[in-house]
Write a structure and sequence with these properties.
Radius of gyration: 28 Å
Structural class: mainly alpha
Largest sheet: none
Helix content: 55-70%
Low-confidence stretches: none
Length: about 80
């Protein structure tokens, strides 16, 4: 069997007059909207939600890093140019 999914379909299905409709359906978003403007708004909303989630994660990571950097145990050594030479 080849990697082509159409090769497995019966010939009657492939030769039907629904090829244009099938092609259009494949380009629709998961919600199945036929309105391109609505589809763009939906995609934009999804991307904005994902961006907000990632930005929140970044802020959390930055605050944890800042918190860790501010902790001193007293046994750290400060290396300056004058103390190395």
């Amino acid at each position: 069997m080849s990697g082509n999914p159409l090769a497995a379909a019966p010939a009657a299905t492939r030769a039907s007059g629904n090829a244009g409709r099938d092609r259009d359906a494949a380009q629709l978003p998961a919600g199945g909207s036929r309105d391109p403007a609505l589809a763009r708004r939906q995609r934009r909303k999804i991307l904005e939600d994902e961006l907000a989630t990632e930005e929140k994660g970044l802020l959390d990571a930055k605050s944890k890093l800042t918190e860790q950097e501010s902790v001193r145990h007293g046994d750290e050594k400060n290396y300056s140019a004058s103390s190395i030479a």
